[in-house]
Specification:
- The two termini are 33 Å apart.
- Strands 3-2-1-4-6-5-7 form a 7-stranded mixed sheet, with helices on both faces.
- The protein contains 13 helices and 7 strands.
- It has 368 residues and is α/β, with parallel strands linked by helices.
Length: 368
């Protein structure tokens, strides 16, 4: 058993939470941290009873602030008070994570592996609610498309997290369920290994007690998932504006005394150099938040840059010659597809983070 704390965010829990925590402590867990996230006053007795257990601490939000904020509160407390422990395991308060599974994740966390551990459920089982099945299928597909790496259960609340990455996790955006998704995006961007282990798939009363809002929370998670693509789109648009303005400045002011042919050539080249440099900087620092080698990323970026120009030209010409398609329409469609392809190549090749130790990541400033 590793020396880790179990963190349980709780909003209006049932009395069974007391037995759950008691069993964890009896199994040798050194510390359980329960966050009362604005529960009803009539349930205060549950948290008072938990606070009486040796090895259990209850932290309280007077009003509901969301699961993400509850986790951050617990992470902060852990770092301040438990320097002797190796990390944390997060679990839900509704009993969906069995005691043996929590213990299994805790044991894996104690093997000095610098990775985040996910407890993965089997969504092919008959007891899985339809909304949970559909939600996880969609988020898993989008996550793999935009960030790489196949995660069968992106919404699992049972996670093992090493102490070294708790500080950067506290700095991440997200106050409610979208925060857990942001944790996974952070891990992928920083090249932190995500390992998976199978756990029991437990649902009670068709998951009626869940505080997850099918509409509001799903929208938050969805927008967090596509945030990288949105940043990429904004970077592309900003670069396009820079390209046009630079071209106008060069051809109308700085190069106005040169012959037209030379002006157009130099203005086009100069504007494209400036706009692509700005695009490289924005993608590296903002879109992909990469910390890989600058020179290697620069070379890879411009290899991709010229390859895309060549591909766009050849495909547009081919579409016109062999399919008799309109050049402008072909250009729009082809460049849209190439843009999506470019995002994937930049994510997985150009700006892929170098493998680094977690303690180096912990010393950086993060705010995704």
């Amino acid at each position: 058993m590793s020396k880790c704390a179990i963190i349980i965010p709780a909003l209006n829990p049932s009395k069974s939470l007391v037995d759950y925590v008691q069993l964890l402590l009896a199994k040798g867990i050194p510390q359980v941290i329960v966050v009362n996230d604005g529960s009803k006053e009539e349930l205060e007795s549950i948290f008072n009873e938990l606070n009486m257990f040796d090895g259990c601490t209850v932290l309280t939000h007077e009003t509901n602030k969301g699961k993400g904020r509850a986790l951050k509160t617990a992470f902060q407390y852990f770092l301040q008070m438990h320097h002797d422990l190796d990390g944390v395991v997060t679990a839900d308060a509704d009993g969906q994570h069995s005691i043996p599974d929590v213990i299994k994740i805790a044991a894996m966390l104690g093997n000095d592996r610098e990775e985040m551990i996910l407890g993965v459920r089997d969504f092919s089982m008959s007891n899985v609610p339809v909304r949970s099945l559909i939600g996880n299928r969609i988020t898993s597909y989008i996550f793999q498309l935009f960030y790489g790496g196949k995660l069968e259960d992106t919404q699992t609340g049972l996670r093992g997290i090493p102490k070294a990455i708790l500080s950067p996790l506290i700095a991440l955006k997200g106050e409610r369920y979208e925060y857990e998704m942001n944790m996974l995006i952070f891990a992928r961007k920083k090249n932190i290994m995500i390992s998976k282990t199978s756990i029991q798939t437990l649902y009670f009363n068709n998951n009626a007690d869940s505080h997850y809002s099918s509409l509001i929370d799903s929208l938050r998670v969805f927008f967090k998932l596509i945030s990288g693509l949105l940043r990429y789109s904004m970077s592309t648009i900003a670069s396009g504006i820079i390209d046009i303005l630079s071209f106008l400045l060069l051809i109308s002011v700085l190069l106005k005394n040169l012959p037209l042919g030379i002006r157009v050539l130099l203005a086009t080249f100069g504007a494209r150099v400036l706009s692509s440099s700005c695009n490289f900087y924005m993608n590296r620092k903002i879109v992909f938040a990469s910390s890989n080698n600058l020179k290697k990323a620069f070379v890879k970026y411009y290899i991709l840059f010229f390859a895309l120009i060549a591909a766009s030209y050849l495909l547009v010409i081919s579409a016109n010659l062999f399919l008799n398609l309109d050049v402008v329409l072909s250009k729009i469609c082809i460049d849209t597809v190439l843009g999506i392809l470019s995002y994937q190549i930049q994510l997985h090749w150009v700006f892929k983070s170098d493998k680094r130790k977690i303690n180096k990541i912990a010393g950086e400033n993060h705010d995704l």
